[in-house]
């Protein structure tokens, strides 16, 4: 198995592609159920990514239901592909969601939320390792966003697959996860 980001990216995109839709749904639900064990439920502001269906990302709808049921403030983002910045908005019943040119569902409008206010971030990823490093799509959006959050913000990766031993080409600026949740288990870093 390869352990550099570029090869892992290719490998895990293929793993995902081969996952039947119903299996991906079951795994997404299992991930949401495993989140209940985490010591995060005293927090208020939770940032959730809205999945790119075409990339077969973890379906976060189950997490949205969980957060709504616990009366949490849910924050979603809009990405600027020129600056690699993300702007964050409160998800309310009035928030209009529309897919951008990359098929990422995004809020059209809404109440802005500063990154410093966000206490828990669910982080999309392709692969992760046993020490909390992750491989994303390589655009750097989340590294930039997580760097703008407070250091104590809890970062939780969501993955259909289990951990790699070690991702070798990690940069100093890469921000590690506190947890990664898979359908099988919760990794704590």
Automatic annotation (TrEMBL):
> Species name for this entry?
Flavobacterium cupriresistens
Which superkingdom? Bacteria
Q: Which Pfam families match?
A: 5-FTHF_cyc-lig
Name under which the protein is recorded = 5-formyltetrahydrofolate cyclo-ligase
Looking at the keywords, is DNA repair present?
A: no
- Catalyzed reactions per annotation: (6S)-5-formyl-5,6,7,8-tetrahydrofolate + ATP = (6R)-5,10-methenyltetrahydrofolate + ADP + phosphate
Swiss-Prot/TrEMBL cofactor(s): Mg(2+)
MF terms per GO, please? 5-formyltetrahydrofolate cyclo-ligase activity
Do you know which InterPro entries this protein is assigned to? FTHF_cligase, FTHF_cligase-like_sf, NagB/RpiA_transferase-like
Q: Respond yes or no to whether keyword Membrane is given for this record.
A: no
Q: Which family does it belong to?
A: Belongs to the 5-formyltetrahydrofolate cyclo-ligase family.
Name the residues that span the membrane: none
Identify the keywords attached in UniProt to this record, alphabetized. ATP-binding, Ligase, Magnesium, Metal-binding, Nucleotide-binding
Which Enzyme Commission number(s) are listed? 6.3.3.2
Report the top EC class in one word: ligase
